[in-house]
Prior knowledge:
- By secondary structure, this protein is an alpha/beta fold.
- The chain has helices spanning 7-13, 19-34, 53-68, 96-111, 140-150, 159-168, 197-211, 226-240, 266-276, 295-305, 322-331, 333-339, 367-375, 386-394, and strands at 40-42, 45-48, 76-79, 136-137, 170-172, 186-191, 216-219, 246-247, 260-265, 283-293, 315-320, 343-346, 361-364, 380-383.
- The chain has three domains: 7-179, 2-Layer Sandwich (Aconitase, domain 3), CATH 3.30.499; 183-275, Aconitase, Domain 2, CATH 3.40.1060; 277-394, 2-Layer Sandwich (Aconitase, domain 3), CATH 3.30.499.
- The strands form four sheets. A five-stranded parallel beta sheet has the order 12-11-10-13-14, with helices on both faces.
- Residues 80-81, 120, 141, 234, 290-292, 319, 349, 351-352, 368-369, 372 line the site of FE3-S4 cluster.
Amino acid sequence: MRVVLTSEDKAMLDGKYGKATKKAMEIIVTLGEIYGAERLIPVSSVQIAGVSYHNLGEAGLEYLLEMAEDGQTRVLTTLNPAGMDMDEWKKHGISEEFAVNQQRVVDAFAQMGVVTTCTCTPYLIGNLPHYGEHIAWAESSAVCFANSVIGALTNREGGPSALASALTGKTAEYGLHLQKNREAEVHYEIRAPLHSTDGFGLLGQIIGERTGKAIPLISGIQTATTEQLKSFCASVATYGGVPLFHMEGITPNRTTEPERKEVVTEDNLIAARKALDDEDAEIDFISIGCPHASIKEIAKVAELLKGKKVAEGKTVWITTARPTKDLAIKMGYYDVIEESGAFLVSDACCAVAPLKGRFKGLMTDSAKACFYARGKNKFRTEIRTLDECIEKAIA
Length: 395
Ligand code: F3S
């Protein structure tokens, strides 16, 4: 089947709007053909991943520079975390060489009109689609949040395809843009108390590992905060590749009842926590903010650190979006956190910053952060509540 194109789509494909737009349209059309899309549809928002120079390297940067020669965004487009705080990188131990290259990456995006927010929680800082809106997002945790908690519609884009949607304002209509692909495939009944972000992360880990990409319908959870849901999204997307879930009484989408049933018990949660806890972990790094911390989480950290000092030999990163950091500065949270010896790091996170070899053990409230700390940075890990993480930092 061939994708039917409008005259505007064809004009982009023919190069009428320049070579970057042409290349972008070629990517969208090729994806449409591979996945059997009948047409292209407009998107109202884009989130681009693959921003850290640590992951992109010189080849990725070359591609961006080429696209930036004449490419311009057509819709609101924001960026995933970079490998460093774009202003305060020096005091976080980032090298000059890395900083120069990271700046080149962010400059290339800025040249294309991308809002250089550098956060994986764009929905907390103004890139917030509404229910039923078609979007093209690439960050897996944000994709899961957008599809499930907001009720927008997006596939999990890659960095180049998200950029292609930004430059054309279009995506191919397949996958999760079609209602028929958004039904639950397995019903999870949760028979365990869940009160904290780490607990929701562990639940995401269990579901992701048990049924992979299958879309879950989750029942038995009475309440969930935005922070707990973002933790769950990050985890279920990391451990299973789940881009969408339904949570009875909490998320807005409707689904038919799946035949397959699963149960999660308190014992399952205890076992999941154990699996992320390395017995020999020597904790010298504590990080909160995966996904990026909300202002509520930062306020809580500031309350816990007020008048305290981070223990010698420990490094603490609270990672967040730049607009949230600005708000934290205004509210005095930044000063409280930094006076304790912890860092409020914007734009970056503990997974995409070049941290390999700098620490031995990470304590965090995020199951996703544990996954990357182990896999990419070879750190030992322990997962605890936010309060326990800060207790450890000052102990
Ligand atoms: Fe965000 Fe980095 Fe975690 S991109 S979801 S803080 S691994």
